[in-house]
Known about the structure:
This protein is 77% helix and 1% strand. By secondary structure, the protein is an all-alpha fold. A two-stranded antiparallel sheet has the order 1-2.
Amino acid sequence: xxxxxxxxxxxxxxxxxxxxxxxxxxxxxxxxxxxxxxxxxxxxxxxxxxxxxxxxxxxxxxxxxxxxxxxxxxxxxxxxxxxxxxxxxxxxxxxxxxxxxxxxxxxxxxxxxxxxxxxxxxxxxxxxxxxxxxxxxxxxxxxxxxxxxxxxxxxxxxxxxxxxxxxxxxxxxxxxxxxxxxxxxxxxxxxxxxxxxxxxxxxxxxxxxxxxxxxxxxxxxxxxxxxxxxxxxxxxxxxxxxxxxxxxxxxxxxxxxxxxxxxxxxxxxxxxxxxxxxxxxxx
Length: 283
């Protein structure tokens, strides 16, 4: 009887926690939609800003956010998965590997502004990339790298040992087993980490503040070495600077709504791929 009461209490707390999470998520989306929908129009989505960013649209900021996010993912995803494969499948077990894993986990908690200063010192100044899409993408890539490594490691650990043993028993090498069995089976979990990383990369302001973002640009970037407008920084600029606070606040909420939709679309693509592999491997 006592165990059943404890179990029911635990289930109730879990359900309440889930409902609270859904409530806050729905509240954020409703708040952004209620404030942002009046500002949305075809002109707002497709044109460049004008008149001190109080007229026109935010198309360059939408494109810039997409470029920076995709650049970060293209840099961090293969590198993060490769690191996870080495740490989980190849590295000798011992305290050194445990220290490395602890360092990766701690790196995930470093404030984003620190990554921005690192990107400024290394990519902007030392390598001479300047304030550009390349510098911003590499900085965001390093920012999301620990999360991708951790998620990929957890996904690889979740693959049953029998999968590996069956492949090796058939005469496959360790790399053939990893490439053909372990990685495809772990891919749904790896993509879950990628989905979370996409949201973080798209929504960060501090790293691109020092490495990529510009307050205003007449057109679209022409190369990876161009400065770029981005939705998070555009929202920050609208809310902190300008001559028409009321108008700029409405535009900022419109940008916030577009950012939520953009992240949702990019994440949805990863979810579709994840579900495809999950249906094949059943976990």
